[in-house]
Amino acid sequence: MKYKDRETMNLNDFNENYVLLDEIVKKHIKKYELQQKAQGLLMPFFCFKIPYQILNEVGKFDEIFVHGAEDVDYRIRCAKKGYEAYFILDSYLLHFHGKSSWDGVETNKQIEARNKLYTESFLKKWGKDLTQIFIFRKNFSNILDNKGIAHIFKQGKFGELIRELLK
Description:
- There is one protein chain.
- This protein is an all-alpha fold and about 170 residues long.
- The chain has a domain at about 40-85 and about 100-165.
- It has 8 helices and 2 strands.
- The protein has helices at about 10-15, 20-30, 50-60, 70-80, 110-135, 140-145, 150-155, 160-165, and strands at about 35-40, 85-90.
- Strands 1-2 form a two-stranded antiparallel sheet.
- The longest helix is centred in the C-terminal third of the chain and has 29 residues, at about 110-135.
- It starts with 10 loop residues before the first helix and ends with a helix.
């Protein structure tokens, strides 16, 4: 299998195919400048660094989210304290998109139960609007419009957006 314009591969694609991995790495290195960073709304933590100062101020992961959304919760808590979260674009990680959890390890019923647990926990902690935006991630433009903050979302200022939503 040849690497095309994809930036990821699944476990079957990899199958210890280091030539394919090397092609992806080479293309990735050419694409991104050193230490270029970007922000997204969700910011999932596949591999991350939490500076000691932030860990002391924000704390550890909230253990009510043992079934998921712990990274989203931490992202919100960091923004609340004034910290931004970034992807460093010239870094890369061999990650198989849930291979350890939902890719054949859990049944659909188990996935549903896990999703329900973390969604209920998130709703209880952060409320309806943040749950709609960060967990369901669909049809949330009306929330942003009603709060007059859609422009912040369009500008990609996601830490600021979170702080506005928390007011």
